[in-house]
Amino acid sequence: MSLHEATQVNEQQSLIATNSGHGPWHVVETYQAAPWLASDTVLDPAIYESLADQPVIAIDFPAFTDGRGYTLARQLRERYGYRGEIRAVGDVLIDQLFYMHRCGFDAFLLREDQVVEDALNAQHTFSLSYQISIDTPEPLFLRRLREAASQKALLQERKEDDYSVPELKYAVA
Question: Of 23, 37, 54, 90, which sits with the fewest C-beta atoms within 10 Å of its C-beta?
Answer without folding.
Answer: 23
